[in-house]
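PROTOCOL LOG
Step 1. Enter all chains and additional molecules of the complex.
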Amino acid sequence: MNMTISINGADTALPDDPRVSLLDLLREHLHLSGTKKGCNQGACGACTVLVDGEERILSCLALAVQYQGRAITSIEGLADGDGLHPLQQAFIEHDGFQCGYCTPGQICSAIGMAAELRRGVPSYVTADLAAGAIAPDPDELRERMSGNLCRCGAYNGIVAAVSEHLGEAP
Amino acid sequence: MTPFTFARAADAADAVRLAAVPDASYLGGGTNLVDLMRETLARPAALVDVTGLARGIEERPDGSLLIGAAAKNTAVAEHHAVRERYPLLSRAIVAGASAQIRNMATVGGNLLQRTRCSYFYDDDGARCNKRVPGQGCDAIDGFNRNHAILGASGACVATHPSDMCVALAALDAVVHLQGAQGRRTLALTELHRLPEDRPELDTLLAPGELITAIELPALPFATRSAYRKVRDRSSYAFALVSVAAALDIDQGVVCDVRLALGGVAHKPWRARVAEDALKGRPATPDNFRAAAAAELAAAAPLRDNAFKIALAQRTIVAVLDSLTGGQP
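Step 2. Run joint prediction.
Step 3. Record the structure below.
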């Protein structure tokens, strides 16, 4: 069996111990400390990463072994060398953070959300379930990003950064 | 976490075989089980990963829908047939948890998340009959604003946290099971149990039994349906009260109705008393109020949660009202 997982494009051996979470694989085994451990119980979203490019999940509740053969993208995998991902740049321009601890999760989550909007996945505030494309207005963004807490309260800047990014590249 | 062995099941029969060892658990998306294992509230010796099992959503000729148990919550909520024919299910799913968790969580796992309350997690400071059978329950005389008002017992007052299951209860969903003794089906409303004196048991599944699919029977009037969730913050919180409803009206009279409540009991609460009170009667606010009051007549509030009785009644009335819009 091919016991590897792709992390930011690099095939990586899975840990022998199935108890290792995807979050601990990233942070403790691979020393990719961009993905943050907030609550470690699925309540804060700081550990959000992307699976196969655009599916956002919580790495704290994922056993790494369950993602054998899958491609994981963490915040370290978004920039192009020293060139920031456009959404990273938008967070800077719109003051989308203060302490920055939730930011990697916010950014990965927003990229996953963009894919969900393109697919027309409904949210709790979507008025028309039959709608094929959903406009990313602030109510939709706030509902869809509710799994990512920011205890600094930088939500207005986060919504502005994500809105600008979606406006440019929906 | 205590150590465990890990195996990935190729199909349902393989999963049942792999789980035929002591203290085995099936693992879906892990959004509840991994958390419970980290807290050592669950200590399986063997995990059988069933996320690779059937996850298709099949539209069958008789108008029913068969959802593979490994389908992710998001996949069900966004499926065109669910959105068109069972909108209350789509709405209930997206009312639950967060987008990340809905992307991970499977349908089978959603059904089998533990019925639980905060005292269940507090193994340093609180007694819990669900965690340690016979120990006692500190929630009954504790901070119990979130707890059950219907069907609770002196042993447990926790509520079932699923939103999806409330819609499934209203839809008469059928759970397909496979175990060492073969296959069987069970009504969703019969899958979960009330706590009585055995609150450590959330469901009536036999040991090693696996959920393979959820069947939604045809229900044409479910196109007129809704799910409303009332909670302490507007997103990413468990329900204080939730209501799933579908309404069939002709000439202003209720021909048929489905009604289920979340956040009020140890299991998804099918409101059959209210349904019986509504059928054949004019679809008026007065009748909605009377039916809601009849359903909640059996409520037994605790110190902090009496507000849920009125809240549940008002939410039922509001949801039914919203479904009468535009009807002559």
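Step 4. Note key features.
Residues 307-323 of chain B form the longest helix (17 residues).
The mean pLDDT of chain B is 97.
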